Amino acid sequence: MKLDAKIPSGPLTEKWDNYKFEMKLISPSNKRKYKAIVVGSGLAGASAAASLAELGYNVDCFCYQDSPRRAHSISAQGGINAAKNYQNDGDSIYRLFYDTVKGGDFRSREANVYRLAQVSNNIIDQCAAQGVPFAREYGGLLDNRSFGGSQVSRTFYARGQTGQQLLLGAYSALSRQIGLGKVKMYNRTEMLDIVVVDDRAVGIVVRDMINGKISSYAADVVILTTGGYGNVYYLSTNAIGCNVTAAYRAYKKGALFANPCYTQIHPTCIPVSGDYQSKLTLMSESLRNDGRIWVPIAKGDKRPAAQIPEDERDYFLERKYPSFGNLAPRDISSRSAKEACDDGRGVGETGVGVYLDFADAIGRLGKNVIAERYGNLFDMYERITGEDPYTVPMRIYPASHYTMGGLWVDYNLESTIPGLFVLGEANFSDHGANRLGASALMQGLADGYFVVPYTVGNHFATKGPAGVDTTHPEFKKVEEEVKQRTEKFLSIGGNRSADSFHRELGTIMWDNCGMGRNEAGLKKALEMIPKVREEFWQNLKVLGKNEELNQALEYAGRVADFIEFSEVMCHDALDRNESCGAHFREEYQTAEGEAMRNDNDYLYVAAWEYKGVGQKPEIHKEPLEYENIKLATRSYK
Amino acid sequence: MNLTLYVWRQKNADDKGRMETYQANDISSHMSFLEMLDVVNERLLTDGIEPIAFDHDCREGICGMCSLVINGNPHGPEKGTTVCQLHMRHFKDGDKIYIEPWRAKAFPVIKDLIVDRSAFDRIMQAGGFVSVNTGGTPDANAIPIPKENADTAMDAAQCIGCGACVAACKNASAMLFLAAKVSQYAYLPQGQAERTERVKNMLTQMDLEGFGNCTNFYECEAVCPKEISVKFIAKLNREFLRATVKKP
Amino acid sequence: MTNNQPLGFSKASVGKKVLMAITGISVIGFLTAHLIGNLQLFVGQDQLNSYAETLQNMVAAKWMFRSVILILFAIHIWKGIVLWLENRKARPVSYMKDVTLEASVASRTMFWTGALILSFVVYHLLHFTMITTNPEYANLPLDNGRFDVYSMVILGFQNYTISAVYFIALSLMAFHLSHAISSVFQTFGLTKPTILPKLKIVSNLIALIFFIGYVSMPIAVLLNIISLPTGGNL
User: Fold this and answer.
1) Of chain C residues 146-185, which have a CB less than 8 A from chain B?
2) What is the reported pTM?
3) A182 to chain C: which residues are within 8 Å by CB?
4) Which of A448, A578, B83, B141 has its CA 20 to 30 A from that of B171?
5) Same domain assignment for residues B13 and B39
6) Where is the domain boundary, B110, B145, B178?
7) CA-CA distance, A406 to A229, in Å (whole number)?
8) Are B240 and B154 in the same domain?
9) Per CATH, the architecture of A476-602 is what?
């Protein structure tokens, strides 16, 4: 299979304009003859559904939560980047583009990233017009902050709840279209498979999570906006319900899965406290602006932090990266913390954690200033751990946070299944091997508000209506498969819960395909996962029936897909014999422990094709061509 | 610690439902309340009893999905905390814990502790938006907004739509939810064009959904996990009076 | 589609609340006037009786005033009942374990205190206005050609049972008012978080003033601070 990214011609800065001019249009009166299915209602889904409906298309939108407003985009704390240059500090579209490509360790597509930087400004305008209450200065203009080690202040924010406010903005636009009847919203409805007829995505099969009814929906285009797969590690900062099912089902139907091994581990999360733990809570990265990260120099030093004298502490980030110090990028900070803990110098009861200490900042600025800056985060930390971070240093540890990999899409955000578009975290497109802070919200909204309304229109205009409805035999066939699978979960009658399998899988993945990977570990994981999969299908226990609200049944389906998917991840990690961005292969590092990228052999997107359960997927490579940016080694020394 | 749980079990919307008693033994004080329920569910599964169904998702206090009334308190006894961030260290060995769903006609029980909150969505669909289409919006800095107004709008906008205000209100009124949304737009210039219609339409939808009326108990403010102030209900009342005297 | 025709003012929940507030304020206005008038009991027989006579002689004004207050009172009662019924319906299944954090007892018993006050008002009218419950008051000798309201009141309150009824009813009224007054400000959107707690205190104080004002009369009679004028007997 030859992967064609369909990048428009012309200079980088003109590609998107050229595309918009050259694309085909549909007359306003014909738009209502087309229908789009949007799966997911986060930033990408809600914005796409609303924008398409505003144009006049009919939209069916699906989400597994009880309301579209609860999609996990809501949890993003920090902010959203845009190249507005309101602060007059030298920002520009090109700089945002460059920073994003560099931050992604030169593993993303230039044209996509440039478009992202271009439309970033429109997003801020759009959200402000919707009444999103961004933080403002006393003069009434928008405030910006520097985020995630960026040297310009380009991050817009709404307290520590930027994701929430942006999502509620998109949700309000979506709600308006639901009220107008242009969007039909299906809450508590989970997509369980996609239907492809004549090499075109024509619909989906869903399960009504209240009564178990399995039914089909047909449309002229299917848009997946179903987020990332960070929960493959069991513990992550993702919501409990986040899952890979929609994307994985599409993969099984022929969509390629790109770069699954690129998973971002966020350095500042509250550490695990016990084996009952269900989720990890992110503490905003902004804490690293004032907190100092350290561990004891001596191994196994279990004294309370206050009793460890200054000269027996190792401020390892400051030591190793003097110019960036505690603000070193996410992947580097995370790995350093892991090294310290692997070395037996971790802190806390479990020894898996490092200190994030505000004593110096409180001494320098006073408690009040710190409370003003981080008060709500400190409160949250105390609520969860029962410790007061004003007096005892916080303990943090990295956790799975975001997945850069996703379904392969071309410049149109269309997957290798024609008519199947993928937006937001669910696609692989813009972040390369590592995502910069405050860029996830930007990408989700760029895809939904400003990219897909054009590219889907072009798709309709060139391909015409799908002309298939749910009476087509393929729909019946897929429905039947979904029903059988559901029945299968209920009929195994084993002894273990889906949760226990998920935990087992999570441990395998975290240990072998987490922050650091190596060949032996990945091969071991590839031996262990099939065993988990086999036991799952023989020893799973799900009570109740399909025709009711059955959370255990929902969960079983998601875990089954995670298990199969995790093998694809390991294959990808094993194939990529280099360290780049969030993918750190321990074999490929310098003597000082720095990542060694290999541009000669791995300057490509690895897109995997499904070949059957337990079979090694087939790799397809999309070479990355850098016409504008000179490849350089990332250095944060 | 060992606890006795009294949990509302209801098979579906038509079932009458009843309280069941479960023992939760060897619970760690570091667990979150929902993790305690996870553990109980895992044990129920072993015993062949269907696990307790409850809504939850982000488990970090922002999605608004979790919705348990614990010993009569929506989201439990801690102020400004959702159930998912409530930890077991606030309970002690031997405690008896009542766990019930949100109770309101407008929030019918779907199963066990899960209720249908789509009424909130419909209130939003009736006017909880600014009617701007994607594209063609002015530069974000074209309209300066006094910081104070932007901050007040943000105070209101923090609402996570969980419905605890309804669950706590003796009248099962949704006034705090409604007030937060109406106020957010009323304080921002972007919300002015539809200001009059918005409050009328959203209020009408709220009334039609079968929520009760606000009689100024202020229970809502006391349980709101985002501590949204009843001053926004005062604002809503002003908005309503303003809309009444304004010509449509 | 959710685009419903907006509900009319008096059907909308906030509208009902506003009506409760407006009619409530009017009743408070009446209570104030009534109290000032009645406190003339402490000035003396002549003052109270001539005041009563003046009111009696303003026939048109009296009936206009009575009908207005009756209508306002009726709206207050009617909307109060509607609110109570709707609010009960809004929670068909109650909690096994019910907790109250903020809501005062007064705020939660508005309907019941209201109902009891209403029955008291009926009694009060029958007692002093229509003289149905104690017809013997009608036989009081005239005071300079005027009906002797002064003696009637004293006679009435000298009866322990009657005084007790008044005492209880007036405490219920004060209780009702303590929530009502602060509520009015919230309903008209005149509050903010900084003044809300103070407003509750002020509201309680005003309610207390009404209570003391009204209850001072039966107390004064029972303590013999005010007694029947010499010669005035049945």
Assistant:
1) 179, 182-183
2) 0.96
3) none
4) B83
5) yes
6) B110
7) 8
8) yes
9) Up-down Bundle (1.20)
In the numeric block, the tokens 């071991």 are attached to A524
Shortest alpha-carbon distance between residue C193 and chain A (Å): 21
- DSSP3 helix / strand / coil % (chain B, rounded to 5): 40, 15, 50
Q: How many CB atoms neighbour CB A441 within 10 A?
A: 28
User: Does the beta carbon of A69 lie under 8 angstroms from any beta carbon of chain B?
Assistant: yes
B204 with C5: Cβ contact below 8 A: yes
What is the 3-state secondary structure of A24-40? Answer: CCCCHHHHCCCEEEEEC
Of the partner residues A69, A386, A453, the one whose CB lies closest to the CB of residue B134 = A453
Nearest by Cα to A226 from A38, A67, A435, A505: A38
Which residue does chain B place closest to A75, by CA atoms?
B62
The yes-or-no answer to whether A265-399 and A476-602 have a common fold is no
* Chains with ≥3 CB–CB distances under 8 Å to A: B, C
Which positions of A are catalytic?
Answer: 330
At A122 the pLDDT is: 98
Handedness of CA A209, A213, A216, A217 (dihedral sign): negative
| Tens-place pLDDT, residues A506-534 | 999 999 999 999 999 999 999 999 999 99
Taking a C-beta distance cutoff of 8 angstroms, is the pair B132, B208 a contact? no
pLDDT tens string C39-85: 999 999 999 999 999 999 999 999 999 999 999 999 999 999 999 99
| Residues B123, B231 within the same domain | yes
Distance from CA of B213 to the nearest CA of C (A): 6
pLDDT tens for each residue of A126-166: 999 999 999 999 999 999 988 877 889 999 999 889 999 99
Q: How many CB atoms lie within 10 A of CB A5?
A: 18
Reported ipTM exceeds the 0.90 cut: yes
List, as ranges, residues 1-40 from C with C-beta within 8 Å of A: 1-3
**b/e code A165-191 from CB counts within 10 Å (16+ = b):** bbbbbbbbbbbbbbbeebbbbbbbbbb
Interatomic CA distance for residues C44 and C60, integer angstroms: 27
pLDDT at A284 over 60: yes
Distance from C-alpha of A551 to C-alpha of B95, rounded to nearest angstrom: 28
Closest chain A residue to the Cα of B205, Cα to Cα: A179
Q: Of the candidates A563, A562, A468, A557, which has an alpha carbon nearest to the alpha carbon of residue A207?
A: A557
A165 touches chain B (CB under 8 A): yes
Contact of B205 with chain C, judged by CB distance below 8 Å, is answered with yes
Alpha carbons A221 and C151: distance in angstroms, whole number: 90
- Whether residue B235 lies within 8 A of chain C, CB to CB, comes out as yes
If DSSP codes are grouped into helix, strand and coil, which group holds residue A434? coil
Question: Cβ atoms within 10 A of the Cβ of B49, count?
Answer: 14
Which residue blocks in A343-449 are alpha helix, DSSP H? 359-365, 367-385, 440-445
Q: What CATH code is assigned to A265-399? A: 3.90.700.10
Per domain, the residue ranges of chain C are 13-92+104-222
Q: Which of A125, A141, A541 sits opposite B138 (nearest CB)?
A: A125
Give domain limits for chain A: 265-399, 476-602
Residues of chain B contacting residue C89, judged by C-beta atoms under 8 Å apart: 105, 210, 212
Q: Which two tokens stand for residue A274?
A: 């016990």
On whether any CB of chain B is under 8 Å from the CB of C7, the answer is yes
- Residue C7 to residue B226: CA distance in whole angstroms: 30
